[in-house]
Design brief:
alpha+beta, 8-stranded mixed beta sheet, two-stranded antiparallel ribbon, 12 helices, binds 4-amino-1,4-dioxobutan-2-aminium adenosine-5'-monophosphate, binds magnesium ion
Length: 405
């Protein structure tokens, strides 16, 4: 960790594993380090241990490689959307609505005056998604995208959830669900190709030390068309796995020992599978890791388990939503076509007791068929680095009971 300047002559190296070496004539030490108390002086520290030193861990090879990866993926994101004539829009972080309607918002509690009036005169929270504001811009500029921090107060202590994460949200006009899936796939493949092209040394480093086979897996993702299945097909597929004895759902009433016997050699699902259930990460992982062996786009979900703004299909049961699932991680992208009829949206919002008059105005004045998706940036970094804990791929992870610095 010492900061030094070395002056000398750069010569061809006789040693293997390095092309050149510096024959030093002068070494100046700027910032010395006492190795005895330097918290990251040891060679092989676990990622978990390094999390205790968020301000120093960037000096390790792994975190420097992850930082380069975030940088490349950010640039690739802008390049992809700019190349395709999307406009980059800055949506607000403070907002008075809850896009996903899931009530997982962080609230602003500041007040003004002596009467303890709310600062904004109403309830304001940190944004859970830039989508709704993005739609206002798309309805004027056509294709747009946002790329910014997003906040969710969900009490999830998992390797794929953060309270603060970055999301990329394009919104496109005059498209349909097929177009939406195509753009999702093109965008992700573009980012993968840029990283495979520019960061091979880092990817080989991740492959060698953390995730053997990573390079090949990423190349396969680029070369193979993402599989697409409707939600109904996925449920049928999982039910078949259970019926034909390759998987079993845990029955809590059966004593552990007995159940173990029943489940021998089978994959165990903790939660039941039925049409209408919200696919859990265990179901998603089983699909991508065991059955498809690659990326899977699931579309046409039951309307009951999805957000209020999603466009209904003519079957009256499903909505034009799509999720992209990837191996080892699960959901990487969530998106949908939006309801573009004023009356349909009004009815849906009334049913769900949601009031956002300006959002309805977009349908009242010159409505346009449109849709978009949100991609969790950290989950893409997990995919490309093979580092499957989200707390390691963002500089300063925020999650329940953790907001150091
Ligand atoms: O599926 P989500 O909730 O979709 C939306 O927010 C839509 N409004 C997006 C849109 O259509 N414009 O979130 C989108 C993605 C997820 O697929 C996941 O990758 C990521 O955001 N995500 C999280 N990443 C890290 N930590 C969390 N707590 C996350 N919640 C969602
Ligand atoms: Mg989702």
């Amino acid at each position: 960790g010492v900061a030094i300047r070395v002056e000398g002559i750069l010569v061809e190296s006789p040693m293997s594993g390095q092309a050149v070496e510096l024959k030093a004539t002068k070494i100046t030490i700027f910032g010395d380090v006492n190795a005895k108390d330097y918290p990251i002086s040891k060679n092989k520290l676990t990622l978990e241990h390094l999390r205790k030193f968020p301000h120093l861990r960037i000096r390790t090879k792994i975190h420097a490689a992850l930082a380069r990866l975030r940088n490349s993926c950010s640039t690739a994101t802008h390049t992809f959307f700019q190349m395709n004539n999307f406009k980059y829009v800055h949506t607000p972080i403070l907002t008075s609505n809850d896009c996903e309607g899931a009530g997982e918002t962080f609230n602003i509690s500041n007040t003004i005056g002596t009467e303890c009036e709310p600062f904004f005169g109403k309830n304001v929270n940190l944004t859970v998604s830039g989508q709704l504001h993005g739609e206002t811009y798309a309805s004027a500029l056509s294709d747009i995208y946002t790329f910014g921090p997003t906040f969710r107060a969900e009490n999830s202590n998992t390797s794929r959830h953060l309270a603060e994460f970055w999301m990329i949200e394009p919104e496109m006009c005059f498209i349909d669900l097929q177009d939406l899936m195509n753009i999702t796939e093109d965008y992700i493949k573009f980012c993968l190709k840029v990283c495979l092209g520019n960061l091979m040394e880092d990817i080989e480093f991740f492959d060698k030390h953390f995730q053997p086979g990573l390079k090949k897996q990423l190349q396969t993702l680029v070369d193979t068309q993402f599989k697409r299945m409707t939600y109904t097909e996925v449920i049928e597929c999982l039910e078949r796995e259970i019926q034909e004895g390759r998987a079993i759902v845990r029955v809590k009433e059966i004593e552990n020992k007995k159940f173990k016997k029943l489940a021998k050699g089978k994959h165990v699902f903790e939660e039941p599978v039925f049409w209408g259930c919200d696919l859990g990460s265990e179901h998603e992982k089983y699909m991508t890791d065991q059955l498809v062996n690659g990326a899977l786009i699931v579309y046409n979900y039951p309307k009951e388990i999805k957000s209020f703004y999603m466009k209904e299909n003519s079957d009256g049961k499903t909505v034009q939503a799509m999720d992209l699932l990837v191996p080892n991680i699960g959901e990487l992208v969530g998106g949908s076509m939006r309801i573009d009829s004023h009356d349909d949206l009004l009815q849906k919002m009334e049913e769900k007791n949601i009031s956002i008059p300006w959002y309805l105005d977009l349908r009242k004045y010159g409505s346009v068929p449109h849709g978009g998706f949100g991609l969790g940036f950290e989950r893409m970094i997990m995919l490309i680095s093979g580092i499957y804990n989200i707390r390691d791929v963002i500089p300063y992870p925020r999650y329940p009971k953790h907001c150091e610095m």
